[in-house]
Design a protein that fits this description.
Order of helices and strands: HHHEEEE
Largest sheet: 4 strands, antiparallel
Oligomer: single chain
Radius of gyration: 13 Å
Length: 110
């Protein structure tokens, strides 16, 4: 299935800069090494955001249970600025009463 309202999907800048690319964030620090290894940096954080949005807009979404609204899992490959790639599992949430799907997290799929 498609991510509902996928053309309106959104990623807040602090989700990229302060979480996925943060080597000091308590739960994001382990993810940052993956993104740095793909060539993403603080200077090109917008590229990571664009690549994750492209995944949300083209990937197959699977609805997963959530108490916080409609939650979706999308698995797909992204290619970083240095040409390396990884298959990511990304989680998107449309909160109660909010039609816009927003990125919650993204990390390498197992």
């Amino acid at each position: 299935m498609e991510l509902p309202d996928r053309e309106r999907a959104e990623i807040r800048p602090e989700k990229i800069r302060g979480y996925l690319l943060s080597s000091s964030h308590p739960s994001g620090q382990h993810k940052s090494s993956v993104y740095f290894g793909l060539g993403y940096t603080f200077e090109n954080w917008e590229r990571l955001s664009a690549d994750l949005l492209a995944l949300a807009q083209s990937g197959d979404a699977e609805r997963v249970p959530s108490l916080y609204g409609e939650k979706f899992r999308i698995v797909g490959r992204i290619v970083g600025p240095n040409g390396r790639s990884v298959v990511l599992l990304s989680i998107w949430l449309r909160g109660h009463g909010d039609p816009i799907p927003r990125l919650v997290t993204a990390y390498p799929a197992r």
